Amino acid sequence: MNAIALPLTVADIVAEYEAKESAMAAEIKALEDAFTRLDHATTVQGAYVERVAQRPYLHIDTLRKNLLKSGWRAVYDRLQIASIASAKDKKLFDQALANPPPLSIETAKATFGDYLIRPRFHILRGLAEAFTALDPAYKSHSRVRIGVKGLPKRVVLNNWGGFSSTYGRDRFQDMANALAAFRRQPSVEWCEMLDIDDQHKLGSDAVMNGRTLSRYRSGLGEEKYYAPNRGLTIRKFGNGNAHVYFDKDALHAVNRALAEFYGEVLPDAEPEGVKPSASTAVSKDLQFYWTSPEVAERALAFAGIPDLRQWDRYRTSRPEPMKVLEPSCGDGRILDMLRTYGHAGYGIEYHPGRAAEAKAKGHSVLSANFLDCEPMPFEAVVMNPPFYGRHYAKHVRHALRFVQPGGVLVAILPASARYDHGELEGDWEDLPVASFAEAGTNVPTTMLKIRKPA
C-alpha cells in the first residue's frame, strides 16, 4: 500500500535546500567523472579522434545562487504568497530574487510571516494600492464611507498599448487581481487578457463576466478554463486608452474592501452635520498616531531638509544645521530623525506622558498646548497634527506663524484634506498606502508643503 504523501512544510523545503547546497560540490564532481568515463568509453587506448560531448563550465557559486533562488521561490509558492501579497510586494520579491538573503526558517519567517499572520490586511492593502493608483477618489476616506455611489463607476487606463507599451494592461491586471483576491476568485489568467484583445480586434467591448476560454499549457496542449465573473467591462479607444467599467457587485466589493481597510472610527469620518461634544472634540484632538521612520524621512525630504551625514560625500562645504520645530511632537519620532540628520529639533507636546518620553530621549520639548503657544521663528516646521475632522487646518495655520520668511512647512495630513476639504493650499505629495498601519490606522495620508515668501 502506498504511503500518503503529506504536504511539504517550509521546514521541509529548507531542509531540502540545505541538503542540496551541502552536496553541490559532490554533484559537480560526479558530473565531471561522468564526462571522464564518457571520454574513456568513446576511445581505444586513449587515442583522440574528435570531441563527442561538450563539457559544461560549472562554477559552484553560480549553481548555489540558482539553488538559493529556487528555494526562496519554492517557499513563496508553498505559502501561496501570490494570493495574498499586493502587486507592489510581488514586484519587490521578484527584484529581491536577484540577490536573495540566506534561506533558513528564521529568514523565511521574517520575510513571509506577516502575510500568514495578517493575510486580510495584505489583501486589502493590495486592493487599496491598486485602486488609489487609478483614481484619487479611492484615496478619499470620506468618499469611501458614504457608499457605492461615492466612488467612480469607471477608471481610465492610459497606454493600454500593444507591442510598444503594456503600462495600461499591467495596471489593469494589478487592479483585477487585487479585486479577485478580495472576492476569493482566482487570479486573472493570461487567456482572459488575450480574450480582451481578441474582442477589441472585432470592435466590441470586452466583458469579463464569466465564460469558458481555451488556453494552452506547455506539454498539455489545449484545455478549457472557466473564467469567473469579474464584473468588468473594458472599452478600448483609438488613442490607446481604455475605460474600465464596474458592474454593481464589483463596485460594491471595492467599496466594502476600502471601507474595511480605511476603517470607520477615525475622526475624519465624522457624519456630516453632526457636531461632537466639546469633551469628545478635545479627546480626539489629542489622538496620537506616531510617525514611522519611513514617513519621517519622506517628510524631511519633502521639506528639503538635508541629511548632513551624507553631505561631505558630495560637497566641500557643509551647510549649517537647521532649526526645526515639530508641533504636537508626541514622543518625538520626527525629532529623532532630525537629530539623526544632524539638525536642531524642538518640540511642543500637550500630553504629559508623551512629552516626558520625548524629553527622556534628550529632546528639547515644551509641555504646552501648541495652539496656545506664541510664535517664534524657525527655518522649518515639520508636523503630524491630529486628524480630527478639519481641526488639522487650525494646527497648520497656527504653525505657519512659526515659519520665518523663506522657511518651509510640511504637514502630514489625511488624504481628505487634499481631495475633499480644500481648506489648505500648497504643494502636495501622497504617502504610500497604509503608511500609519503600525501606529494603528490605515487612513490614507498625504503631505502638504507651504513655503513662506522671503
Question: Main attributes?
Answer:
Rossmann fold; 4-stranded antiparallel sheet; 454 residues; alpha/beta
The overall pLDDT average reads: 86
**Secondary-structure class:** alpha/beta
CATH superfamily of the largest domain: Vaccinia Virus protein VP39
Low-pLDDT stretches are 265-286
User: In which order are the strands of the major sheet placed?
Assistant: 7-6-5-8-9-11-10
**Number of DSSP helical runs:** 17
Listing every helix as H and every strand as E from the N terminus to the C terminus, the arrangement reads HHHHHHHEHHEEEHHHHEHEHEEHEHEE
Could you please describe the fold and organization of this structure?
With 454 residues, the chain is an alpha/beta fold. The chain has 3 domains: 10-117, no CATH class; 122-264, no CATH class; 283-451, Rossmann fold. 43% of the residues lie in helices and 18% in strands. It is built from 17 helices and 11 strands. It has helices at residues 10-22, 24-41, 60-78, 87-96, 105-117, 119-132, 141-145, 167-182, 190-201, 248-262, 278-285, 293-303, 308-314, 333-341, 352-360, 392-400, 416-421, and strands at residues 154-157, 206-217, 221-236, 242-246, 323-327, 344-349, 364-367, 378-383, 403-414, 427-430, 445-451. Strands 7-6-5-8-9-11-10 form a 7-stranded mixed β-sheet, with helices on both faces. It has a 4-stranded antiparallel β-sheet with strand order 1-4-3-2. Helix 1 (10-22) runs antiparallel to helix 3 and helix 5 crosses helix 6. Mean pLDDT is 86; it is low at 265-286.
